């Protein structure tokens, strides 16, 4: 794999896991307010 392909793979992983973590954090924060 070329360097650019590895960078794009890492960016994709960060976006996917970052979005997942943000959605979980938002759900926990919303549930604590009730």
TrEMBL record:
Q: Which InterPro entries does this entry report, sorted A to Z? A: MaAIMP_sms
Which key words are in the record? Membrane, Transmembrane, Transmembrane helix
Transmembrane among keywords: yes
An example Pfam family from this entry, by short name, is MaAIMP_sms
User: Where do the TM regions start and end?
Assistant: 6-28
Record carries keyword Transmembrane helix: yes
Specify the protein name.
Methionine/alanine import family NSS transporter small subunit
Organism source for this protein? Desulfosporosinus nitroreducens
Lineage of the species this protein comes from: Bacteria, Bacillati, Bacillota, Clostridia, Eubacteriales
């Amino acid at each position: 794999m070329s360097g650019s392909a590895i960078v794009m793979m890492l960016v994709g992983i960060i976006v996917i896991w970052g979005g997942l973590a943000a959605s979980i954090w938002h759900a926990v924060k919303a549930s604590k307010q009730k």
